[in-house]
Amino acid sequence: MVKYSDVYWQDVEAVMQQIPNKERMFGKSIFITGATGMICSSVAEILFYLNFRYKADIKIMLAGRSKDNMQKRFSCFTEGKDYFFVPFDAMEQSMPDIHAEYMIHGAGNASPTVYTQQPIETMLANIVGLNSVLQAAVQGGSERVLYISSSEVYGSKEDNEPYRENDFGYVDILNQRASYPSAKRAAETLCIAYGQEFGLNTVIVRPGHIYGPSITAADSRASAQFTRNAAKGEDIIMKSEGTQLRSYCYTLDCASAILTVLLNGVSGNAYNISNAASIVSISEIAQALAEAAGKKVVFGQATENEKRGYNQMQNSSLNAEKLEMLGWSAVFSLEKGSRKTVFFFEE
User: Fold this and answer.
1) What is each CA distance from 304 to 116, 140, 197, in whole angstroms?
2) Could you tell me which of 54, 142, 149, 273 has the fewest CB atoms within 10 Å of its CB?
3) pTM for the full model?
């Protein structure tokens, strides 16, 4: 959960300024699945801010399995006034009739532990859930659908050069951990297929490793565990050497990037989301969060279950020049984002 304050909304204002042609959203309906998740809740916050600060008159439709969870996550906003709840289960093959100019699909498992425990559900949520959204977009005449994919679609390669959008490496499809990248790859192709068969306008974003105060309780990714340690005033526990290279991006920067692509991206294209100033190793982000909390990094032993959930990519850094050419840039450095994460995170 995020501790809201005037300072937090000033940060939302700062990232909102990085979205070119934001006025295209004004007076429109925007439907978001996975709205209580780490990334899409930040997207919703920008939309809330546009409505109450700039009178944007955006109809915000937030989809999820539980109305109670939605109201808890956005407790300072009023359902039926500030936003409208839409029941949605990414495992179901149908959804209520939705008429929205813009649709963002971000629902699905986002925890490495869950990938290994529920590989079937992980795959179906990305493919069946997305198909329901795409069908609704065709039937409702939506202007555009944005699908939130992942840097894991790239697979492994030998060098440490950041991936561009047309670079692809190896994924061991016979490993149950591949349920996540394999589903993301198939879902991206499904977006393109709907464009070819139905003329549907779709765009894709591939976030790297996102961190920030909006992490969820179920998130078992390393940066989420580091955040919980730091926020509790504990030393950060590393359960690997942490040499893997990653693209980190603060959650509000990621949200502004998503809205930038939604409004300005080229149909049928994918865009990496990465902060060029925050391409660091796992151990380096652990150190940044530890310093923000006045703590240190210590080493612990990973369980076998934790090891099974590890991302096998030694390098998943991303080149975001294609996104930056749309006019977007990140606001939060790793140091600044780490301080904000520790300050605004509430267990």
Assistant:
1) 11, 46, 44
2) 54
3) 0.94
